[in-house]
Amino acid sequence: MAALSSPAHTAVPFSGTVPFFSQSASFQQLWPLISSGVEQVVAHGKYSHGRQVAELEQALCAYTGARFALGVNSGTDALVLLLRAAGLAPGEEVLVPAYTFIASASAVVLAGGRPVFVDVEPETYAMDPAALAAAITPRSRFVMPVHLFCQLADLDGIGAVARRAGLTVVEDSAEAIGMRWGGRHAGLLGAGGVLSFFPTKTLGALGDAGAVLTDDPGIAERVAALRHHGRGGRTLDHFPGISNETGLSGMNSKMDDLQAAVLLAKLTRLDADIARRGELAARYSARLSRILGITRLPTVITRNTDTVGAYYVYLIEGEDRDGLARHLAARGIETETYYPTPLPFQPCFAHLGHRRGDFPVAEAAAERALALPLYPDLTFAQLDRVCAAVEEFYTGGAR
Ligand SMILES: *Cc1c(COP(=O)(O)O)cnc(C)c1O
Fold first, then answer.
1. What's the sign of the alpha-carbon dihedral 368, 374, 380, 381?
2. Which domains does the chain have, with CATH numbers?
3. Substitution candidate for ligand 1 out of 104, 150, 152, 338 with most atoms within 8 A of CB
4. Per-block average pLDDT, block size 10, for the chain (399 residues)?
5. Whether the CB of 104 sits within 6 Å of ligand 1
6. With a 6 A CB cut-off, is 76 part of the ligand 1 pocket?
7. What is the DSSP letter of 381?
8. Is 218 helix (H, G, I), strand (E, B) or coil?
9. 16 CA from centroid of ligand 1 (Å)
């Protein structure tokens, strides 16, 4: 009886769910810092595109090493603004991976371009340089590598193909805060990149927000105008946009100061959060590597000396993925399939006429990949319960 009511047992209840994502404990811990930031926003009274946003932009420059960081409404808007500011003209092609979040491709459409899909590499789930070279046409103008889950795309391989073909590289680095390639932060290896601060991302706000990162003053200036109705200066009736140059008008994609205040508070523990994610990922891998039936565990491939990954999503592949997901769900463990349908087969791109078999690596990943819960608030006890349930599925005759 004494053993059953000991703290070790009461602190680790066997029942109870493991949510796919939760950050209520983190928010509780940071609340004093967040609430004082929110009070400052209320006090200065400029709730959009104000002081906290400027402060966050400076902090993002310091963290990433970017010359310019521009706060906007979302990671998706950041991609649209980056493409427009980098000079995408209507109808021009942007090469994007077949396996990514829908926004990588919808941003191209929203910016007036045409997505051309490229298969991915099995090791990184990111764009395959050889498939890229094969997909280029005379209308191709940009290539958008997407960095997914825990590491960067092969930027050397993609960069070499892009240079030969005269393509500009823009990175969808929405998931890649904290990831570096040859010492440079994700998003700064081509013309520019983006960050998403959607709540589930590594640096998440209390709602939607995003940023454009670039070292190019011209792109920064155009993004700054375009996100703010195309305003040219401080007066309310001057909207040159950049329409004389490119025929584009501005939009409203300013960042809220409340979100910036939250992000400034969370930035103080970003490195600790990334370290915690790495620690959890290492524990998952140590436990799961012994289980037959799991066909792939994530790894960060170090192609150059200063490559740094960061675990945003812990993605495994295994036999009977859907059966495993159902087994875990029945035990209160939430998982996600990232990404269940390769983008060329989404209804919105059906007109492109792609067929099954056109993107074999993306199609295989869509069938096999499963993301397990990974976030700083996840406890080792919860993680161990996930691993035990996975093991039970593959070895305990649960199938
Ligand atoms: C989250 C994400 C986006 C979009 O960011 P939002 O802030 O949700 O608009 C774009 N691309 C990738 C790869 C993402 O993971």
1. negative
2. 28-267 (3.40.640.10), 270-394 (3.90.1150.10)
3. 104
4. 38 68 94 96 93 97 98 98 94 97 97 97 96 98 97 96 98 97 96 98 97 97 90 58 58 96 97 97 96 93 87 96 97 95 96 97 96 97 96 80
5. yes
6. yes
7. H
8. helix
9. 30
* Nearest CA residue ID for atom 14, ligand 1: 174
Q: Provide the strand spans (E) within the chain.
A: 68-72, 93-97, 114-118, 140-143, 168-171, 180-181, 184-185, 192-196, 210-214, 294-296, 314-318, 369-372
CB within 8 Å of 204: residues ≥ 6 apart? 23, 197, 198, 266
- Assess whether the C-beta atom of 172 lies below 6 angstroms from ligand 1: yes
Tokens 């004494």 belong to residue: 2
Task: Of 167, 163, 164, 147, give the one whose Cα is nearest residue 88.
Answer: 167
Residue 126's closest CA among 148, 142, 106?
Answer: 148
